[in-house]
Design brief:
By secondary structure, this protein is an alpha+beta fold. It folds into two domains: 131 residues, no CATH class; 72 residues, ACT domain (Alpha-Beta Plaits). It is built from eight helices and six strands; from the N terminus they run αααββαααβαββαβ. A four-stranded antiparallel sheet has the order 4-5-3-6, with helices on one face. A hairpin with a 2-residue loop joins strand 1 and strand 2. Helix 2 packs antiparallel against helix 3. The longest helix is centred in the N-terminal third of the chain and has 24 residues. It is elongated.
Amino acid sequence: MQQLASSSLSLSWDEALLRIALAGVLGGSIGLERELREREAGLRTHLLVAVGAALFTIAGAYGFDSANVDPTRVAAQIVTGIGFLGAGAIIRQGFSVRGLTTAATLWVVGAVGLAAGAGYYSGAVITTAVVLIALWPLRVAAYNMLRRFRPDAGRLLVELPAGTPPGGVIDEVVRTGVRISSITVGQDGDRRRLELDVALPQSLTAPHLVARVADVPDVADVRWD
């Protein structure tokens, strides 16, 4: 049977395909969830990280003729490299920080790829399942539970025609009883973009806030993020 390397430790092409393909499927499934939520790193990024980590692991264990090569050194460098990649997914906007969860999923996907590359299939599959549960069902459960004890917080994105003062939108938001933590005003072509980081009172939901702001004169678009 054809082998990947001529060292005493070798891996068949079938086994290598299984490990790399499994890493891609598991990493891609996590990335798909991020893609559906329109996060900074999505399907392709997570898939590539998992496949790359798997290949690094395989190459470290089977790709060198020298018996003195320590494959654990390659694994350690994978963790360091993914740390830099995850830092790039973190974005600071005003007083808020976004992308921490995406950075964490990139880090976990690297571990999943490493486990798949090492042949630890059960660990890779179980970890992927736990991550997916944490990203969707657990998130919904935590949101419903915590909303009883603290106000719902999020970002209100409003677009106005260029040159339109944002005072009318801000006044309407304040009248609803919403607490504003930060305000960012920018220009995007012929539109003025207003970003409000807000905390909703218990008596108000995000859809109701969006509907109230949408009725303000000159508002071209309003979204809740």
